[in-house]
Design brief:
The protein contains two helices and 24 strands. The chain is an alpha/beta fold.
Length: about 400
Amino acid sequence: MSAPLVTPLRRDVSHRGGNTTFAFALSLMAMAGSVGGAIDLNNYYSVKAKLQDAMDASVLGGLRQETSQRSTVATRIFASNLPEGLSATPGYTTDKTTLTGTVAYNNRTGLLGLFGISSLTINVTATAVGTAASQSSGPCIQVLDPSGSQALLVNSGAKITAPNCEIQVRSKGSPAAIFNSGSSLNFKKVCIEGSNVIRNSTAVDRLSLSCPTVADQWAALIPTVASTTCTVSNGNCNTSSVSLSPGVYCGWFNFNNSSATVSFAPGLYVIRSGGWNVNGGTWTGKGVTFYFEDTTKIQFNSGISADLTAPDTGTYKNLLFFERPGLSNTDFIFNSAVANHMDGVIWLPSRNVTFNAQSKMSSDKLSMVMNRLILNNTTWNLEPVTGSSGTGGALTNIRLLK
């Protein structure tokens, strides 16, 4: 008699129950993977957004620095913008007008680790780009007083040879400028915003009236100088040889020896709460900047001969004389220069500047900004500054490159 057929049927039922358990286990794992993956991906995109924000800030800030400092400053900005507990080391590349930062970060996972995915790599990059702030096409003399009568006064004996320079006078006063007989101006253009000038028996070549002037070309590039304690206070320099170092000079200083040689070490000279009276002598300094923290001044008297050159790199690039913005209007006088050679920018927008009595000036590159300008018996040969100021990496219009 054959065996009953019930046994194979029971085995089949038993196998199906095992398959159901296995399938249920697989579905649970799939659900866990799905939920875990969603959580880990959400964390991934959250961390990536924070890294991207930090990288964007770092390249924007870094590009405002001189080329040699961009990577260092950008790295510091990147770290300071990361939330607590998040750490990564970026890398940077730069050229004249761009700064690019990149970083790779291994973001650890949670539930995805059960499937052998212990981390997800996040790659972030950003590029900032700027426009070189060149002054090559701008005026080399700007007179800013918008309404003053005689904002520019050119008297007998004033002779300027500057065929590659433009002088601009913002004044619409009556008259905005006076040109007296015996003067000679050889500029590429003399641009006066006002329509009323006086020409006393003299011709002014390439004079343009009702001429629109540009904004102060250097104002946006002037660096802020932090106020520090005085390093030198009051003094009389009477010896035949004087050597000065950068620092904060407070009070009054007199340079009385007309045959003295005064040498300046490279750096920033801050002049505060007083001024310098210079009675002759020879001044030499390469890579020097003089900063007027208040209405102080240097008054050059009787026969000074100066050979002064601004820095060609760093924070104060191209700045020879400059002042704190927003000062009240005061006078600044250059008297009787035997032979001045100055290279750089003289940025004195609050000063009424006078060049007197045989004030001779030559330069390889010189640009000036002042409130008013008086020229008396001066002889100049000028070329404009063709570089750019040092702050902000010598760039303007800095932005992210999308």
